[in-house]
Amino acid sequence: MTPTPAPTAPDTEGATPHTGAAPAGSTAKTRAPRRRPRPRVWRGAVLLLAGAYFLVPLIASFVFTVHVPGQGVSFEAYTQLLAADGFTESMLLSLGLAAATIAVSLLLAVPALVAVRLGSPRLRPVVEVMCMLPLVVPPIALVTGITTVLRWGPEHLSRTPLYQTFLAVQDERFPVVLVLAYTVLALPFVYRSLDAGMRAIDVPTLVEAARSCGAGWPYVVLRVLLPNLRASLAGAAFLTLALVLGEFTIASLLGFRPFAVWIVTISGAHARMSVAVSVLSLLITWLLLLVLSRAGTNPATVSSAPSSSPTSRKES
């Protein structure tokens, strides 16, 4: 009687257990469900509304100036503009007042903000409140105070050397009193623009590095700080320019005739010409904005140095 061999366990080494699933090679890889892109219709609608808000009044104004009922298209309003009485004088006066206001505002704001940021940061809230104060003072209140001072001057300064200076600031050819008033009105915008620029750079480190190299304060301000604040300076200049070109209340009540007052003066007798002047002034403002924006961008100066050629140094 031969012994029956014991049953041996099947060799499962290297075999894959059957789990009821298909082999890995034949299974399709699970993919994450694709997210549908969000509809961007609302973005286009917002841009369309914004474009219509700015362009429709401008186009309507231009059509009003060139379309004459019964005659068709005519550019007579623009051709007569340059020959209009007072146009060139008022435009040059407004541009001169704007340039002087920009210069005075920056000369006051830049040193003050640098001194506060370097010397006494605790005074920053005080300076901010003082610079923002013209926003809460109505221009009519400001011009009332200026008128009171101008009336007080001849009575008390007529026998002093300051009387001629008092008359010179009211010269109609270039009223310095308007420059002073516009500087006060533009101070909040200049402060905000410069303060944002100084927050973006490390003013103490730049000044300390320049001073440690032997640079004087004029060199530090003109060659170190101002190039880093170029965009902020351009923004402050453009805001001041727009404010001066559009300001009417102070100049009208003080009896001067810059560009905005001249437009209102001729609007009663020459309606089309006044609208044409408004369209032209808007285009001039845009061109000046482009010039200031180009002046505010740093030129792309890229210096490429050869990196593959090693330099030999002599050990001393």
UniProtKB/TrEMBL annotation:
InterPro entries: MetI-like, MetI-like_sf. Its main location: membrane. Residues 91-292 form the ABC transmembrane type-1 domain. One of its GO terms (biological process) is transmembrane transport. It is a multi-pass membrane protein. Keywords: Cell inner membrane, Cell membrane, Membrane, Transmembrane, Transmembrane helix, Transport. It is found in: Cell inner membrane; Cell membrane. GO terms for cellular component: plasma membrane. The chain crosses the membrane at residues 41-64, 91-114, 126-153, 173-191, 233-254, 274-292. Residues 1-37 are annotated as: Disordered. It comes from the Bacteria. Residues 9-28 have a biased composition (Low complexity). Belongs to the binding-protein-dependent transport system permease family. This is ABC transporter permease subunit. It comes from Streptomyces vinaceus. The lineage of its organism: Bacteria, Bacillati, Actinomycetota, Actinomycetes, Kitasatosporales.
